[in-house]
Amino acid sequence: MMNERMNAKQRAGFKAVEFVEDGMIVGLGTGSTAFWMVERLGARVRAGMRVRGVPTSRRTEEQARSLGIPLVTFAEVQELDLAIDGADEIGPGLALIKGGGGALLREKLVAAAARRFVVVADAGKKVEVLGKFPLPVEVVPFAWEVTARRVAAVTSAEPIVRRADDGGIYATDNGNYILDCRCGEIRDAERMERELKMLTGVVECGLFVGVADLAVVATDDDVEVIISQK
After folding, report:
1. Which of 59, 117, 145, 178, CA to CA, is 20 to 30 A from 108?
2. In this structure, what DSSP letter does residue 127 have?
3. Which pLDDT score is estimated for 220?
4. 199: exposed, middle or buried (C-beta count within 10 Å: 0-12, 13-18, 19+)?
């Protein structure tokens, strides 16, 4: 049960679990708000709810296992009933920027496999125009410097290869690199997503356009549920 001591991330994550029904196969997102969703779902499982989860990252997989949430892979299931994940920005029409946590490829695969995709966030993630948060673009390591120049031509921004805590190049769970692009205002997110994905060397980008079905957006005091008009 939500209480006044919860912060916005907890409130949003807990609220999103209300959309999970007994027997569902659920995509489990990655990030600071999705963390609380997984925590709440674990409590539901311990109380008797029957669900199976597909995690979007190794970090989420470890968390879910520690909470006793049964996990499956896409070798076992082809479709998910629901996916719940966070976002770095939520723009008009529930267009999103995701990938700050480095799991954008798996997150998009899981979202695409779900009948319904719910995004969870604190109210600070809502923006009038996408682009203040750096746009992550996942690329293969081979010739990433060449790919970066192509990405720059599309985004009009100088891509910065993401670094790990030890100073080396950060590698995703799939062994790829991430280029962070400070694009400024992205007025046509659908076009940019399409053009980036056409580039040789680009695996995926952090623009999620026309994917989210609803958003659970919370402050420390309240929760707003926004339904997509797609």
Report:
1. 145
2. -
3. 83
4. middle
